[in-house]
Structures are given as C-alpha cells and as structure tokens.
Amino acid sequence: MRNGLDRKVLSREELLSSHSKQMLRLGHQLNAYTQVFDPPIARDSAGGSLAGIPVSIKDSLDVAGMATVCGHRARLSSRANKNALCVDRLLDAGAVLLGKTNTPEVLMNWETFNDVYGVTWNPWDLQRTPGGSSGGESSAIAACMSAGGIGSDGGGSIRLPAGLTGICGLKPTPGRVPATGHFPSVGHPGGLLGVIGPMARTVDDVAILFEVVSGHADSDPFSVPFQPSPFSRKIKVGFVEHPDVSVALAFVQGETGLFPRQAWQRLYDVWRFFFLRLNAHPIGFPTPHTAEFLDLAPPTAAELLEMLAARDSLRSRFLMAMDEYPILLMPNPGFGAWQSSEFPGVESMAPLTVANLLGLPALALPVGFDINGMPLSIQAIAKPWQEEMLLDFGKKLEEVRGSFPLAPLARNI
Fold first, then answer.
1. For 36-52, what is each residue's pLDDT tens digit?
2. What predicted TM-score, i.e. pTM, was given to this entire model?
3. Would residue 383 show up in a list of annotated catalytic residues for this protein?
4. What is the CATH number of the domain that holds 145?
5. Is 133 marked active-site?
6. Which is the catalytic residue, given 56, 60, 133, 223?
C-alpha cells in the first residue's frame, strides 16, 4: 500500500474507500469493530512511514473523547482525556485510524465476546473464534478491514489471535513500546507480563508498525532509552518438539537444535499466580478464568515476594539456556481455532505464557493448516530487547515459506 501511494498508482481516497467497503461488507458477519470513526481520525499535516495507511486499534487503548469500554458495561460512559501514546505515534506517522476493535470483558479471556458488543468471529470460519483478547483486532486485519494495528498481550493475547487467524503479531519486551493509555493499566506488577504490540498480515508490516510505536517514554515505568545494536544473522535456532514447530523448521535456514527441556508447568503456575490470581480481587467481579480465585484470600505480601523470586530464578535459567539458541521456536498454541465456547482449557495456553512471565519478545507467524483448514502458527522467542533480530528472522522464514493465503472471506476483495 505504501509503495502504491508513493508511486501514485493508488490514492489515499481509494485506499480508504476499499477498506470502508470491506468493513460494510463483512462488519456484521465478523463483529470485529466496537467503534468505527466517521470520519476516520487522521492528522492532515502528518507524514511518515504510515502516511495514508488505514489502521485499527484494540478497544483497550484510549482515543481522546472516545470510550474505552473493553466489553465492560460500567465503562460505557467513560471518555478518555487524551490519546494513548501509541495512538499519537500512529497518527504522527500519518496513519488513518479507522476504529477500535472488540475484546473480551476487561481482556480476561482467550475468546472475544462480551455482554456489550457480543461475539467476534474468525474470518476463516464463522463458527470459530479468532481468539482473545485481541480477537477483534486479528479478525479485522485478517479480513482486510484494516491494514494492521495494535493489540496487547499479557498471556498470549496478541500471539494467539494472530495465530488463529493466519496473521502475524509481536509481543515486545516490556518497555520497548510504551503502554501509556491502556486499560487495564499496564503498570507494576502487570507490566511484568503485559505489553502492547503490533499486528499485521506479514512480518514486514509488523516491523513497520513496530518502528513507529516503539521508543522511550517517561510516562511508562518500564520504558528505557534503548538503542538497537547490530546482531549476527547466523544464529542457531532452538526448538521445542511439536508438529507445528516441525513444519516451521522446514523453512529455517541454518543450524537448529533441540532446546533443553524446561519445567513448562512451573513457568505456567507462576504466570497463573501473577495474571489470574493477583488480578482476581482488583477486578472485583468474576471473569471466566478468575472466578475461582475470588473464593480465596488475596495473596499475601510474603506470597508475592516468593513468586517474584521464583520468576527471577526461572528467568535466569531460561536465559542461560538461550545463550546457545538466541531464537527459540515454540507452538502458538499448538492447534487451530476452536468452535466458539469450546475453549480447550487454560492449561492449553501454557506455551503462550512463557514469554509473558519471563519478559521475552515473541513473534507469531503462520506456518500451515490443521485438518479443518484453520491456520496453524508458531512463535519465535528471543532474549529481551532483541526485537530487531527476531523480526529479521521472521522475514527470512516468511520469504522461504512464501505468501500465506488470505482468509476466505477476504479473498474476493
């Protein structure tokens, strides 16, 4: 799109019109958007790498004067005072903001439905979920109702929806992309796990968005003035044994090796404490996966300190294992999209929680299909602050794999 605009074979008006027509054609079927801005939000004088490109954002991100509902009725009357920082960065780069996309209630689910906006569907199969919590965003992008956008991820919420809808998504290192203006707040301790990051149909597009929204901001307590450093393009790739990962290995050029066996259950249990149990009482009402913790007393200070220590110990051991394997391939999550309301269980999401608990960047990209014709995906994980290396690896894998098909509903665009 950017190249077409630069060569003047495509106008901004034509690009916006094509997306608007797609939104009108598929909007009711998919229910991906919660708010469509009419007119779309743009800064007329803005120019940059996204000039004229139509994008969307997850409903958890603030837009000045608009509600940030996140599927929770009590927030319908809320109005943001100012834009989330990443929204300002998108607009400053020339992006055209089409609207906000659906989420589960307060983001606490791996399927996208709520009592305010209803169910969002997968453009590969209208009886299946696009995942959550960035499911509206992934559905919109996969259906070509948006060129790309921004989601958030505390337990796979960028990577799972990307994987289930055949697109790409990056969960950055905490601090690479400021999360200022996100609800719920990505502050401590949530910022240990939760981040915001880009989603798009290709790794190339994810990289363009990442360059726009990343960078230091004093308003984010996890942000650091980080400058990318040169990296070697010849690296040894570690992998976890899984059929989906085996498919991806066929596209990897260079040396590979089996990653040392880790205690995945222990990683998952510690993540579960921080993401589910620690959030249950502050949320204040039952959600599908926190209700069980409301019957327990809130965690004590001693329990919190013990879990922080456990997290640090697990992180150091994992990072030492990654000295030999700067990139690790894991399933994302290891199966295709399921029928709505047939969630396979929280423990099935365990592979997604590794990067969140340990503060690692992780890139989701599609590699094939399951027996139902639904996309299968893997996640490539790197050490903290190595997003550029990770994106470079993803681009190379994408080149060998070839173009991934569009979702069926989008193919006659």
1. 999 999 998 778 999 99
2. 0.97
3. no
4. 3.90.1300.10
5. yes
6. 133
